Amino acid sequence: MARGSNVPVGTTRTATNGYHYTKTETGWRLTHHIIAEQTLGRPIRPDERVVFKDGKRANLLPGNVEVKAKGYTSIHVRKDKIQARIEDLVRELNAIEQELETHVTWSLKKTNKGS
Fold first, then answer.
1. Which of 92, 86, 45, 85 has the alpha carbon at shortest distance from 69?
2. How confident is the model at residue 114 (pLDDT cuts 50, 70, 90)?
3. How does residue 88 score in pLDDT terms, banded at 50, 70 and 90?
4. What number is the average pLDDT over the span 62-69?
5. Residue 34 in contact with residue 27, Cβ under 8 Å?
6. How would residue 70 be classed by pLDDT, with cut points 50, 70 and 90?
């Protein structure tokens, strides 16, 4: 159907970003929100967000849709980013220590040859 035309309630569409929308009496809503509300038996609260357990927006099975407190995911993402930075810094520190060790060994060899 053409964009903007009247479509029946219950019609679904997929946006270019991969999210599915369903036409309701009040307008278009994210399909995974509707599924979560049906599973919970209540509306999604403003302090909650709905996520896909497997990260695939096309998987609209009720078992793949999960309600979490807002901020929960972002805290874990921030933690993972910090952990990755720490690992990068440890690798960089190890490389510098090896370079220093090589430099000290080279300097000692050079000093000993001069004696």
1. 45
2. low
3. very high
4. 94
5. no
6. confident
Structure tokens at 38: 């049906």
> Could you tell me which residues come within 8 angstroms of residue 1 by beta carbon, excluding any fewer than 6 positions away?
7, 11
Distance of CA 105 to the CA centre of its chain: 46
Which is more confidently placed, 29 or 107? 29
Q: Strand order of the sheet with strand 12-14?
A: 12-14, 20-24, 27-30
CB atoms within 10 A of CB 50: 18
Q: Any idea how long the chain is?
A: 115
Which spans in the chain are helix H?
31-40, 72-114
Query: pTM here?
Result: 0.59
Domain boundaries, the chain: 12-70, 71-115
SS3 call for 46: coil
**C-alpha distances in angstroms, 58 versus 10, 30, 72?**
17, 12, 22
